[in-house]
Predict the structure.
Amino acid sequence: MAMTDYSKIIAETDGDLPFGDCVSAEINYRKELVIEYSTTDYRTEIESKKLATVDREDTAKMAACLNVPIEQLPQRIWDECGDTS
């Protein structure tokens, strides 16, 4: 069975600003949790990204601790601390 990417935007800045920030959570094809922070300066069109990857074993432990399937971790993170406005 192929693993599909599961992702969720946790928080992002207002699109009317001259810069933008976004934090997202994703489960990649290796079943690892990936947290991404990206920032964009729309005036210069320069984008910067930082990634934090939780290995497969620890991702599974986190899902078990939260009592959710691995694929639902991004949604669970959003439920706890997300705000997309």
Q: What stands out?
A: The chain is about 25% helix and 40% strand. The chain has a mean pLDDT of 87. The CA atoms of residues 19 and 42 lie 5 Å apart. The two ends are 35 Å apart (CA to CA).
